[in-house]
UniProtKB/TrEMBL annotation, chains A, B:
Organism this protein belongs to: Kribbella lupini
Protein's UniProt name: Histidine--tRNA ligase
Gene name for this UniProt entry: hisS
Entry coiled-coil feature ranges: none
Region of interest called Disordered, as start-end residue ranges on this chain: 413-447
E.C. number: 6.1.1.21
Amino acid sequence: MAKVTPISGFPEFLPSDRIVEQHFLDVIRETFELHGFASIETRAVEPVERLSNQGEDADKEIYAVRRLGAAADDEGPGLGLHFDLTVPFARYVLENSGKLAFPFRRYQIQKVWRGERPQEGRYREFTQADIDVVGDGTLPFHYEVELPLVIADAFSKLPIPPFRIQVNNRQIPEGFYRGLGVEDVTAVLRIVDKLDKIGPDKVTQLLTAADGPALEAETAKQVLRLAEISSTDASFVEQVRALGVQHEVLDEGLERLAAIMTAANEHAPGLLVADLKIARGLDYYTGTVYETQLIGHESYGSICSGGRYDALATDGKTTYPGVGISIGVSRLLARLFSQGLLKGSRSTPTAVLVALNDEADRADAMRTAAVLRQRGIPVEVAPAAAKFGKQIKFADRRGIPFVWFSTENGPEVKDIRSGEQVPADPATWTPPQHDVRPSIETPQENS
Amino acid sequence: MAKVTPISGFPEFLPSDRIVEQHFLDVIRETFELHGFASIETRAVEPVERLSNQGEDADKEIYAVRRLGAAADDEGPGLGLHFDLTVPFARYVLENSGKLAFPFRRYQIQKVWRGERPQEGRYREFTQADIDVVGDGTLPFHYEVELPLVIADAFSKLPIPPFRIQVNNRQIPEGFYRGLGVEDVTAVLRIVDKLDKIGPDKVTQLLTAADGPALEAETAKQVLRLAEISSTDASFVEQVRALGVQHEVLDEGLERLAAIMTAANEHAPGLLVADLKIARGLDYYTGTVYETQLIGHESYGSICSGGRYDALATDGKTTYPGVGISIGVSRLLARLFSQGLLKGSRSTPTAVLVALNDEADRADAMRTAAVLRQRGIPVEVAPAAAKFGKQIKFADRRGIPFVWFSTENGPEVKDIRSGEQVPADPATWTPPQHDVRPSIETPQENS
């Protein structure tokens, strides 16, 4: 057997970091459910043809899946691991349209896989937490306002830095580019999407390159001017108008984005920023698009993104337009962990270790543990009747705060942090609320 | 785009069945945490060489994973999707041994993949919920008693039929076969493991076949006699002794299984059955093995299995012996759903739909929803200001029990099952506890 080594891009957590991840996922799930989103999970695989042609370099990043024992021709159409949760969800909606009630609000928290070059916050396997609303034929505009508010509600309950949700409507650059006479709108969008990463000079170079969209210098300048516009209210409209470009698709996009900004400011002033450089790499978005920055970590890029897709789910007869946002849970946590912003208070759920005087007492110790568990207290029994010092060390290594002893005077419990030991009845003794379960520590706040 | 069709062996739940699955997973997780097991997740992929040679027809059932865009030679060693959670866990222990505290108690709830022929309860993608305890060099015997008690605790909180946990020690058949002079012990074990599926005649045929272990007829009879022994206490020992076979490995196995039966009967009389035909197909088990039957559904096979493995996790210097049990969550649910034993009370978490008199009232309705949510009540706002009958129908289709109205007399809430409508203040009104979240209905009990 070869030596055990990590596989690049497939990170795994130690138990104390996993406790932080579980807390994040629990808060996100609870928030999504409070907002009336139903959970689904989709299979990990889709036919490769359904995963293909969704933009960027997605195709070559798809992981193909095939039985080792399969003969070359007995497997039917090729399967691949899903690279997001939106494409599988659209397929799920088509497959189950007769059994779902529309508009259908669903959340989905699962792993996805992309064969990208691994780097900080970019993994080959990672967890996303998505909400989407999909309509049957039509989908009211107000969901495009609602979804970022749900995300803001979840984030407000998590120990993360302040954030801003950037919003755009793809009709704005699309109409604007068409008004400028640009032919390959998608190619220009994809280049502009890299603005934060590669800067305006490189973008200009790519836009004007003969083997690219080959824009005139003045056209490229206009494209960049549009991308630089942002506002926390509807005032971006005037700034766009001042550039003097006319197109009916542009008008529609401006009107829709202005409506989102106005409505969002009613509920959460300052939460949304209209930012006209936001485009999203995936081709299925047709209108509103979202990205989310952690303030103070802008260069890290978006940790929560999405948008409206009007044509992703269609069976030829009916189209199911949708809007969704996806929290990049692994990506968000990777940043917080690498910056030392979060850690779990212990490496196990256990709050109480029941110590043993003698191996013959194990049955009694198990009964004590069962009584404590009945009141929701996580308990384990010591692995062996070692010296008490060793049993206390066992608890200490894991961050278990309490050790339970059976003494001549009856049962007693020791808080191993303070050393205080008091008589205790397993039927009534309860640890302080904050010790019952592991908690999330934010080291910076404590220092 | 090809027509959307299910992929055989990759089942997906509708939202109301997913609510049942979530309830099961929540109860299992909560029980595992109360018993002091820490959560981990491992990556979906392992090097194929680590997955191979674990017994049965496992190799050809492995799903190989490869980037579509990968050149033939740039991917390093081949990767495959894990087919269980024990092999990845053993690798995780080796990889992180310096950072873990032993004995290490972990639980792991994840999807696994096997390219088996799909049939009822046998899927190509399914969810398992595992607990394991792994020691550093040694692992005390008492964990082999503890683990089935944890499973019994979880099952006692779930709406499932009564069950029995069957236990054996592989040393018993191994020592017995050696005492009989059998050479290929593993081959005989694998054939006996099929006893429930194919019956004693077919097993005898396979055991005596010239291209199989080629046992003498009398030897095969002895093998079958051993497999037929079972007891709910330690009395199986006498039955084995009566067969007159002698071997020191047999003695050790009998002693250990007798100790488990005695200790288990102290805590949960009747829960465990010593059943000497239980073998488990996977080769890594070295001692105690477990299977679990639902009573009344014996032909369905095991829904929770595991055992002790002494040599799975070894780096050449240190060996980390372990014992674990895995609940086949998908397999268990498939049976309960197919028999109509369970369903979710509604298809959404939403308990209250806030109706709209007019689209202009949406901002107010969203504020009402936010106030209710602050007290843990799942709420959504109606998709459109349709006629009230239509808005009530929207709730009814999803099983949402309450609709909130803004009337001339102030806010009122209607229980759409009884039709009763009463004045209500969003800051204080609370639905009955059993309506706040969806519940699990057991249709047989209600009929």
